[in-house]
Amino acid sequence: MLLSVGRRHPDAFRLLWRHARHEPLFEKEAQAFRTIAAGFADDFIRPFVTDKELRHWGAAVIVDYLYGGICEWLDTGRRNRDDEFAAHLQAGARALVEAWSGG
């Protein structure tokens, strides 16, 4: 799970997601990572979001939601509530996709 990776390497996780794209030395790699992650997300939500333009936008948004949410939880959340947080994060992602699907 993505959160467990963040817990094991919180500084690296934050650096990759929050800061690398603002550093000229890592900007291209950070953007490539975001593009690849959005591509996976696009494939995942394709069965639910048939509008290609909306799906492309939604894929980038859901990646931001997931990674940004985990960064925020690493900053403020307690480890003993990680499972609860993960359930909320997952439910939120499902709700986003459902809204975009018109359902």
How would you characterize the overall build of this protein?
This protein is mostly helical and 103 residues long. It has one domain. It contains five helices and no strands. The chain has helices at 2-8, 10-19, 27-45, 52-76, 82-101. α1 (2-8) runs parallel beside α4, α3 (27-45) packs across α4 (52-76) and α4 runs antiparallel to α5 (82-101). The longest helix is centred in the middle third of the chain and has 25 residues, at 52-76. The model has no long low-confidence stretch (mean pLDDT 95).
Look at the structure and give the mean pLDDT: 95
Tell me what portion of residues adopts beta-strand conformation: under 5%
Helix content: over 70%
Overall geometric form:
flat
Contiguous low-pLDDT stretches (5 residues minimum) are none
Structural class: mainly alpha
**Got a strand count?**
0
Distance between the termini: 27 Å
Run of helices and strands: HHHHH
Main beta sheet, described? none
Summed up, the helix count is 5
- Rounded to the nearest angstrom, the radius of gyration is 14 Å
Task: Please give the domain count.
Answer: 1
